Automatic annotation (TrEMBL):
HAMAP family (alphabetical): THF_DHG_CYH (MF_01576)
The encoding gene: folD
Gene Ontology cellular-component terms listed: cytosol
Chain positions recorded as NADP(+) binding sites: 165-167, 231
Gene3D superfamilies the record matches: Leucine Dehydrogenase, chain A, domain 1, NAD(P)-binding Rossmann-like Domain
Organism placement in taxonomy: Bacteria, Bacillati, Bacillota, Bacilli, Bacillales
Alphabetized InterPro entries for the sequence: Aminoacid_DH-like_N_sf (IPR046346), NAD(P)-bd_dom_sf (IPR036291), THF_DH/CycHdrlase (IPR000672), THF_DH/CycHdrlase_cat_dom (IPR020630), THF_DH/CycHdrlase_CS (IPR020867), THF_DH/CycHdrlase_NAD-bd_dom (IPR020631)
EC number: 1.5.1.5, 3.5.4.9
PROSITE patterns linked: THF_DHG_CYH_2
Tetrahydrofolate dehydrogenase/cyclohydrolase catalytic domain segment(s): 6-120
Domain of life: Bacteria
Keywords from the named record: Amino-acid biosynthesis, Histidine biosynthesis, Hydrolase, Methionine biosynthesis, Multifunctional enzyme, NADP, One-carbon metabolism, Oxidoreductase, Purine biosynthesis
Protein name as annotated: Bifunctional protein FolD
Length: 286
């Protein structure tokens, strides 16, 4: 079997074309969605992701502003900035780029963002509503993954989804979204004994481990759908996923590449959430 490649870059581009029309209508009605991105410190990867977010926003007509803070920023300074943004009616979405410098507690920061502006979908209120299946902001990478599956009409209901990774921003929420779609979900992680025994039973395999090419073809069931969330920079500068792509393509029915897979979808879903925030559509309370 040779797998079909789900190209996230192309799908994200299609979504941006649709969103541009939607935003243009909003602008005609006097509403220009606005996203504020907060970047603390000088992590080069974070800087590049933030640039990608600003570029994508501008492509669809969403305005954005970037607040850059030094690495030495205190928690209190960041809280004060977020409070100001929470109260600013001209700001519809607030995104604090992660990771943050070590003196700042990420969870405290996330919880300071007004749930109605939580376009990352990381606030406990957004997460809670996602768990109960209510309409809310969904975390962008898991939302992107579900959108990729749906773009190919891949059946989720009744399928066995195995997630490798249990982070708050990818592993846990993607499992919940798959469960909401009636998949049977198994979570695996760094302490899982005999990982292969689980992955070989997966109809849908989500790899979010952070280890280059760790998932070789012997981990994959024939015909499985393989979603690679890993972004690993090799010593030669090349970017690679958690899945050995050449092995997976021989065995899977669908596979996502790295780059041009899940990454660009993360940014596209952020734009979706920002439009939703501007329209005041997420029932997230205050
Ligand atoms: N506040 C947030 N912080 C972080 C998030 C997030 O969703 N919200 N996710 C990741 C990083 N991330 C977005 O912020 C992100 C990562 C990768 C890509 C992407 O498009 N990658 C490209 C390759 C880029 C490259 O060459 O380096 C690809 O896969 O094709 C987009 C967004 C952690 N932080």
């Amino acid at each position: 079997m040779t797998a079909e490649i789900i190209n996230g870059k192309d799908l994200a581009q299609e979504l941006r074309i649709e969103m541009k029309e939607e935003v243009s209508e909003l602008i005609q009605n006097g509403l220009t969605p606005h996203l504020t991105v907060v970047l603390v410190g000088d992590n080069p990867a974070s800087r590049s992701y933030v640039k990608g977010k600003e570029k994508a926003a501008s492509e669809v007509g969403i305005t954005s502003s970037l607040v850059e803070l030094p690495d030495s920023t205190t928690e209190e300074e960041l809280f004060q900035l977020i409070q100001k943004l929470n109260e600013d009616p001209g700001v519809h979405g607030i995104l604090v780029q992660l990771p943050l410098p070590k003196q700042i507690r990420e969870q405290e920061v996330i919880e300071t963002i007004a749930p109605s502006k939580d376009v990352d979908g990381f606030h406990p209120i957004s997460i809670g509503r996602m768990m109960t299946g209510e309409d809310t902001f969904l975390p962008c990478t898991p939302y992107g993954i579900i959108t990729m599956l749906k773009s190919r009409d891949i059946e989720i209901e009744g399928k066995h989804a195995v997630i490798i990774g249990r982070s708050n921003i990818v592993g846990k929420p993607v499992g919940q979204l798959l469960l909401n779609e009636n998949a049977t979900v198994t979570y695996c992680h760094s302490r899982t004994d005999d990982l292969k025994a689980y992955t070989q039973k997966a109809d849908i395999l989500i790899a979010a481990i952070g280890r280059a090419n760790a998932i070789t073809s012997d981990y994959i069931k024939e015909g499985a759908v393989v979603i690679d969330v890993g972004i690993n920079r090799l010593d030669n500068g090349k970017l690679t996923g958690d899945v050995d792509f050449d092995g997976a393509i021989e065995k899977a029915s669908y596979v996502t590449p790295v780059p041009k897979g899940v990454g660009p979808m993360t940014i596209a879903m952020l734009l979706k959430n920002t439009i939703k925030a501007a329209k005041g559509l997420a029932s997230v309370g205050k």
